[in-house]
Amino acid sequence: MGRERLLRCSILLLVGLVGTGALGRLDAQVGNGGVVGSEQAALVAAADGGRIEFAASRTSDPIVIDGRLDDAGWANAVEIPLPWEVNPAENERARVHTTCMLTHDADRLYLGCVAEDPDPSSIRAYVVDRDGIDGHDRVVLTLDPFNDQRRAFQFGISALGVQYDAVMAQQGAGNPNEGPDAQPVDPSWDAIWSSAGQITDDGYVVEASIPFRSLRFPEQSVDGWGAFVTRWWPRRANVEFRSAAWDRDNSCLLCQANLVFGIDGGTTGANVQLTPTITGGRTDLRSNGLDQPFVTGDLTRELGVDGQWGITSDLTLNVTGNPDFSQVEADVAQIDVNNRFALFFPERRPFFMEGADFFGTPVQAVFTRSIVSPRGGAKLTGKLGANAVGVLVAEDRSNGLLIPGTQFSRAAEAPGRALTSIARFRRDVGSTSTIGALFVGREGDDYYNRVAGFDAFYRPLPSLTIQGQLLRSTTAYPQSIVDGYDQPDGAFQGNAGAFNARWTTRNWLVNADLRQTDADFRADAGFLTMAGVRGGNANLTRRWWGGSDQWFTQLRAVIGTWRNQDFEGNQLNGGMWVGLMYDGPGQLSVGLWPNLFMREFFAGETYDGLNQLFFDVRAAPSGTWSAGLNGNVGDAIDFANARLGFERRFAPEVSVRLGRNTEAGLQHTWQTLTFGGERVFAANLSQLRAVYNFSPRSYVRAIVQYRRTTRNPALYDSPVDRQSEGLFGQLLYAYKLNPQTVFFLGYAQDGTGLEDATRVRTPLTVRGRTLFVKLGYAWRP
């Protein structure tokens, strides 16, 4: 150790002695050249700039997951303190005490935490469905089993034992406005594991058991596992305590994780899971008009099965046959008025969500919701040494296409079935960089689309990341698509590329993107809405850090510019924008984003000098309610009539909790467009969601979505209806023993109403109703 390092450690140690009167007990655990035990030891080790090391031991005594930590199996567990407050303070001593313990046996990894609290009555914890604990008091374990600082699993437990799990992909870009800790996290990943929690007189206790078969890890780990524990303490601010200090000049969060040695376990080659499902239901429709009676539908019964085989601890095969991909979670409703491009809806189907991050690249050439009605499929994902691989094959009963353009995108349906094949390879280079290759093929009747290319992620400095991708596609459409959508006849090719550079420090963030997509580039198994476009954007952010006891926790100021043009040189859109963002007491956040001096090209005309103001305000002053308002006001093109109008959009929302088990939320969006002082249209969309949770495994939920769009036919160039209405309702009972062992019983209905241009009105009438049931069971031999 050099003199400067020794001096830093000595000063920090002396400060600790003066502040506490004694160094305290150092329960040193032998690591690979490191030490850790108490909070003081962790603080001293962090001053040396290294990763703090822990040595986990194996237990032979049983551990019961009941939230008590009184089993004999915890006796020799390694202690992991959480000595730092990393947000909003910067690596200051945690204001409340948290100690976690980690141990394992041959089959499972165990985590137990004691989270002290000076006022247990202020703990925010509620009975909710899994993955719904954002805003709750909770502890989250982040595991990087390969210690490659690229991908990690997250396991969160609320103070009442409710589970949260996710995958963190360190190489994603994150949110460019949120700073270095805004890591790309996918909470759609679900694992089978056990948890418990209870609130005590001194705070709360959580306990978790994570089967090794629910993880992917190297068969031999000589470098240890990357890991850290975070405790969220939502009060006046959303405070974070962590077992690893956070260097805000380093955008790689996993590079700063603790190291855990001694984890060995798991059975390779025998991890099998079978999940048979049965889905039944009946749908009644008014097939001959809204004024006609319902036609009773046939009872349907569908059997399916999903299978998973852990070939090794780091390579997994998933297969599915006649899968049930029915949506029990309704998509969030969106207004589809005055839009030119397809709306995006996230993937929710379990088979496709498993290992989905393996297939993510800067150009979204893979979007599995493009596989609409699969008959079956297989997927192989894993990591072998420095190589990550992913292969997916699925047969779709239909062949839906999204045809991109410079002015709009169009949905199309090609005849016959489609076979989608995806192959992904990624190799680690250096400590945090990668190179990769991607192939995506979609084959059908007289049709194919094949995309292939390379990508790279490079981190030359802790604060600098560079990411890029080049793709080439070859496509041949069937004659019906060629004729109906004015597409090239015969095979045609196109290229696409994306480049991003991001420099992140404690106080500054610089982000730049460049993209180009040829007019003949297609990615039919992805989500591509624009083609024939080149452009980019750049922005600069300055951050000021406050504290939970100050009038602000963080302030951000942003200035940016963007420009997109077609290959004829027309500027499709562009301008500059500034942003002012405030985070403060009561978990209040306020954001204002004026978009200034914008230019947009549409239907042969360029519109100059457009201005818009975007805003977002949110607050969660207590655990019982939260509220928000977002929207925009300013110039907007009326795409239906090719002219400049003025748009207003306001979207308020409020969420209220009644006790620990009941939650209700109301969202409303109101959007109008005016021209010459007269209203062209007004769109309203409301959603009411109410849930009563019997337990973290069982709930009953009601959703009501109402939409109404009113137009002024006199202001339209083409005939339009004066008013259209829609009403959707769903009542669902759910029981989830785990993410795959489930029982759903639900009823849904939707209605429509219409008033044409001559004021002939069809009242809002139910047009369809469905009763459905689903049962799935995850069997692990």
Tell me about this structure.
With 781 residues, the chain is mainly beta. 5% of the residues lie in helices and 53% in strands. It has four helices and 41 strands. The protein has a 24-stranded antiparallel beta barrel. Strands 1, 3, 4, 7, 8, 9, 10, 13, 14 and 15 form a ten-stranded mixed beta sheet that branches. It has a five-stranded antiparallel beta sheet with strand order 2-5-6-12-11, with no helix packed on it. Strand 21 and strand 22 form a beta hairpin. Helix 1 runs antiparallel to helix 2. The chain is globular, with a radius of gyration of 28 Å. It starts with a helix and ends in a 5-residue tail after the last strand. The relative contact order is 0.09.
